[in-house]
Fold this protein.
Amino acid sequence: MLQANSSWLFAQKNQSVDLLVVGGGTSGVAAGIAASRMGVSTLIAEETVWLGGMLSAAGVSATDGNHLLPSGLWGEFRDRIYAHYGGASKVATGWVSNTHFEPHVANQVWQELAKAERNLKVLHRVRFLKALVRGKKIVGAQFISLTSKKKFTIHAKQVIDATELGDVLASAGVPYDIGMEASAVTGENVNVPATNNIIQDLTYVAVLKDYGKAADCTIAKPVGYDPREFDGCCLDFYSDTTRIKPGVDCAKMITYAKLPGNKYMLNWPGHGNDIYLNIISLSPAERDVELEKAKQQTLRYIYFLQHQLGYKNLGLAVDEFPTSDRLALIPYHREGRRMQGLIRFKVQDISQPYLQPSPLYRTGIAVGDYPIDHHHRKNPEAPQHLGFYPIPSFSVPLGVLLPALEFKGIIAAEKAISVSNVVNGTTRLQPCVLLIGQAAGTLAALAIKGN
């Protein structure tokens, strides 16, 4: 891998590659590695200084599902994690997952895997501006360097949208959905009566570290702090009986996502640091303004843990995220735009795959086994019936990666694939998203090599 820098690009205003992957997150890094291994010249354009997205930059370093399905790059990544820490038992540190790791280690693994690929270039600190379109064909994208503030273009034979929110699809004019479809639209008997624009809550993850019993790591009291906001997060702090009674005490809540290195990942949905923000259609500057609310939500939760519950020894880890506030580099987006693709993967395709008119299971390109997990507690207008809705293991069909036939040159990945809002609740999780990215990169490489 060549770690491309601004000078490499600005020496020639217009660069061309076989495959352009917009976003170096969970799907994006997998797509780039998969395509480059097939001999295709590939460039990953990533806004942050890290690779791995959810698994690293967003700090969600306790994987959900696929523990017994270690296929593809998911299995390769997990093997590297095992090797780093000394085996599977060393990462079974919390109770939310079988696999926990420090986010910076995940970034390190992906950087090493990418570096080994001679056909792969990675460009960090660049922001996607717009898709380059000729008719209905996507031929590249324009970016701006966040370092030099210069704009540049990358032309490509194929483009993969691996952004967190499906920004390339929107710019290219590819149809998409935001929010929940009505039952009449999808035929899903677990859906809502009327279509709406409600998406899942997001989270700005923090990682705390145990600095010893004598340490006092209490942060400054955040503006607007009120401990009642967190009433019901755990049994020890529960008085508002209008809220759902928590199932764990505070000590167990803290160890939910305990990481190696005496660290604790904070991603607690029950009156913790989830927040409802729908920033999908906003500009980057507008998103930043709104996301400050998510950061403040997490800081209030940290102060609550330290000041109210007495965990003063747990402080923001200074050896984790390279950010001034020590929070994650990016938020944990559970949902974004969902492409209206060649097919729409619905819950009945998972629950009763052999009874559907189209045998989509025959076209599987990724697998998943996590329940449908929707986070909606912070939006009182959202339905609350989709938390851990049970489903069998499933395969993700190829058609969810592809737009309608009139659009050429673009493949969807990450959470922008063509699934229903309900199904996004399971396909959005890290191992599944990894495999979706690997499939997208493989498909793009096959298309390029087959001309």
In short: The radius of gyration is 21 Å. The mean pLDDT is 96.
